[in-house]
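Chain X:
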Amino acid sequence: MLPITSKKAIHNSIVKIVLVTLTLLDLILISRSSAQEAEAFRPDQSSTPVAAPQGAIVLLDAKDHQFLSMRGEAIDWKREDQTLVSTKSENRVNHIVSKWHFQDADIHVEFMVSELAEGNSGIYIHGNYELQIFNSFGKKEITEHDQGALYGFSKPLVNASKKPGEWQVYDIRYRAPRRDENAKITKPGSVTAWLNGQMVQDNTTFEEPRSVYHPFRYGTTDYLKKIWKQQLATSVGPVFLQDHGSPTRFRNVWIKPLDEKAFLYKN
């Protein structure tokens, strides 16, 4: 018969083996899930513009748009050559916000960066999580500030940026974080993003927003405060196109909801 100390040692060893095995299984499942997500979401970006698929909600086309100012009023961005041009204000918070709100969605944005002000702009998903737009063409070392980054969370996997003056395209699969009745996140959100034919974010997860400059925190308005309150309760919200002082052009913007939660917000 083994002494008690030996039995305890064997028991502890078995527990450690089981825990390690479970951890490895979790990692395998996560990796498999990530690979399946990437395979399921592989948009064709070989040429632009890309026609909106069936079931998509068009936010911007050559004739019209579905955006309001941060005050819930008509936007003052310029219309040039059937595009919208980011038009700056004195305090750098002249973003535009979609009338349509959604929970999980595929998001398509075509854009052209300028050489002015570093081409700085972005796509604020739910006003909290920014897919960066920036003149990062030719940079060898890329960071969380460069194009393709989930700003403040994850740098791009590759530098897929084109030159200023060329049309570029983002396709983003966004899954919103889930919150409980106290607005605490119970399940992280995730982003898979393709930029100009290359994957730049692979099922990147995130929880609370990190930047103090996002629309609900910097330069916010009464209109946005109402949206934010609703968003905390439902995980449903809009997408913003960012003004950061550079005349970024946008065209052909649409979302394809992945659930039944999308609706046209009325103040």
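Chain Y:
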Amino acid sequence: MNFLLYGKPGSGKTTAACTTPRRPILIFDIDNKANQMYNIKHLVKSGDVIIKPFSTPLVGDSLRDRALNPDKPMKNQPEGYLEIVDFLSDILEGKTEYSECKTIVIDSFTRLAEHLKRLLIYLRGQGKFGKGDGRGSSKREGDMNWPSWGSYLSNFEELMTNIIALDTMDLILCAHEKSEEEKDQATGVSNILGIWPMVEGAMMKKLSSYFDEVYYLNPKITTQTAEYRFRTRGTLYCCRSSLGLNTHEPADINHCLKKGGVI
């Protein structure tokens, strides 16, 4: 099965991903934090969790060079997204290095998206696309009408279509959250229209459609206790389940699969 887990930083996404019974679990640590997580160290030690580290910077240029030339194209091609898709291609091609793993966790899709954006910004600077809108104006990378957003979406569509087709591994994708808001012109108050995975453009509302189960990490935290929970439905959320779960369940995939009669 494939799971999308999304929520605020610190809401328990990575820990929850490690509750799947399908092990060993391979975490592709794009956020570069899993190695420092104390609460999964025992799983790493036992071999139930294998962490694939990832420390490639968003940009290849030095921070000094980017600070001094913020409006100029990058000099060096960002390699992060290319390394990510090379790794996923190895998985798809059944490389023996990963053949024993039963679940792959991509943590996080939000950071993966940042690497893709940097690559597209670089390619635009090299004249690969995005020359303008055909009317003499030049689009900026922050503009959702910027010509490369078509490439951004198509890259992700191709990526997701391939990785969800894996029949040898389960897939768990973690993502941060993003609120969609609308400001009331009369009162000036912002109303929340939805809480989505933090991905730019049309993929924000499309991402969840690729997954069997979509859970929002909705912890209940007080000064004395912390109860980590999945939200499985709600009008403001894209979460959903076909397992007959309650609106809130413990943030434990094994529990959810048992309750749904899958295991």
